[in-house]
From TrEMBL:
This is GTPase HflX. The lineage of its organism: Bacteria, Pseudomonadati, Bacteroidota, Cytophagia, Cytophagales. Keywords: Cytoplasm, GTP-binding, Magnesium, Metal-binding, Nucleotide-binding. CDD domains: HflX. The keyword Transit peptide does not apply. GTPase that associates with the 50S ribosomal subunit and may have a role during protein synthesis or ribosome biogenesis. It comes from Hymenobacter crusticola. GO terms for molecular function: GTP binding; GTPase activity; metal ion binding; ribosome binding. It is found in: Cytoplasm.
């Protein structure tokens, strides 16, 4: 079951779009979604995140339908997590834990696995309190007495802190190896594919580099950075496929994946891939730009590539509100602009080059290659002016 607590002024269609993304995350992690609950509040309840009445509704549904897990579209505090588990008697998962779990399933390299494990322990540390409270209740404790539960918590905290310190040291060593690899590639123009998760970066990577990078219609199909050498018009460059960004990406994951994101930070050119068929693609562009600011990579030259033009439908909207509790089914739907209108708008307002393609259907791919070649060549010949071809009269 999914639960969202949006702001009161947030449109129903936007709330549904966010819950669709949460459902996609849940399905990617291996869960099956059966119900969605929405409650509009000025601010979440400090004790249980949702209000008392909504909690009773959720509890009744969980009991009647034998639901095994409730997933919240926001981060829960340790006390909210404990209170909800005590009330509902099922596994409670918040957005951060769900994303970390998907990363854990997807991570293949030693670096990515270490980064995910570090994020897991950093998530766990503040939530250890309360795991052993049943032990401390077994005997009375005065001011000077510590119950066995408290002792157990301190032991666990120490173990977790030691593991976090060990993983941070391990990441430093792995980062040194990565830096050595990157230094060996100095001088070669470096291009990084960036974008929201599931926009088609890996498909474009495979097409441009003729390699076989794992691409799937699931969120975070790529967690490890993949770098391939590409040659266009006799100009070599390195193309990196990086982990996709997402709304409310857990801060601890960004921190853990800093070394992986070095491929973005050290790139000479960014190719920002956007899924134009997604109803919230403009917000996704903002999320990616904000994340690039967070990792200090927002000032790099950038090509904006709108992908999946074959799937764009001006008449499409996010669907009905069937299966939702707390949604308004009568909300008006505003028509979307046509593809031609979007092209005119974005080409007029963007300083950086913009191109519209379909990687799957191979539409406008030659134009993408030509645009990429032109920009890579400009960087390459600036770096190596003696290699610039001379005009022959």
């Amino acid at each position: 079951m999914l639960v969202a607590v949006p702001e009161k002024r947030q449109a129903d269609e936007k709330t549904q779009e966010y819950l669709d993304e949460l459902a996609f995350l849940a399905e990617t992690a291996g869960a099956q979604v059966t119900k969605r609950f929405v409650q509009r509040l000025e601010k979440p309840d400090l004790r249980t995140f949702v209000g008392e009445g909504k909690l009773e509704e959720i509890k009744a549904f969980v009991k009647h339908n034998k639901t095994s897990m409730v997933i919240f579209d926001d981060d829960l505090s340790p006390s909210q997590l404990r209170n909800l588990e005590a009330e509902l008697q099922v596994k409670i998962v918040d957005r951060s834990l769900l994303i970390i779990d998907i990363f854990a399933q997807r991570a293949k390299s030693a670096t990515a696995r270490t980064q995910v494990e570090l994020a897991q322990y950093q998530y766990l540390l503040p939530r250890l309190t309360g795991l052993w409270t049943h032990l401390s209740r077994q005997r009375g404790g005065g001011v000077s007495q510590r119950g066995p539960g408290e002792t157990e918590i301190e032991t666990d905290r120490r173990v977790v802190r030691d593991r976090i310190a060990f993983l941070k040291d391990k990441l430093k060593d792995l980062d040194k190896q990565s830096n050595t690899q990157r230094k060996s590639r100095e001088g070669v123009v470096r291009v990084a594919l960036v974008g929201y998760t599931n926009v088609g970066k890996s498909t474009i990577m495979n097409m441009l580099s003729r390699s076989d990078v794992f691409a799937e219609n699931k969120l975070f199909a790529t967690v490890d950075s993949t770098v391939r050498k590409v040659v266009l018009d006799n100009i070599p460059f390195l193309l990196a496929d990086t982990v996709g960004f997402i709304r409310k990406l857990p801060t601890r994951l960004i921190e853990s994946f800093k070394s992986t994101l070095d491929e973005v930070r050290e790139a000479d050119l960014l190719v920002h891939v956007v899924d134009i068929s997604h109803p919230g693609f403009e917000e996704q562009i903002e999320v990616v730009n904000d994340t690039l600011k967070d990792i200090e990579a927002a000032d790099k030259p950038m090509l904006l590539v709108f992908n999946k033009i074959d799937l764009y439908n001006p008449e499409a909207h996010t669907g009905s509100h069937e299966g939702f509790e707390g949604m308004n089914p009568e909300e008006d739907h505003q028509p979307r602009p046509t593809l031609e209108q979007l092209k005119a708008t974005y080409m007029a307002k963007m300083h950086d080059p913009v191109i519209f393609i379909s990687a799957q259907e191979r539409e406008n791919i030659d134009e993408l290659r030509a645009l990429l070649t032109r920009h890579v060549a400009a960087i390459h010949y600036k770096r190596y002016p003696n290699q610039q071809p001379q005009d022959v009269e």
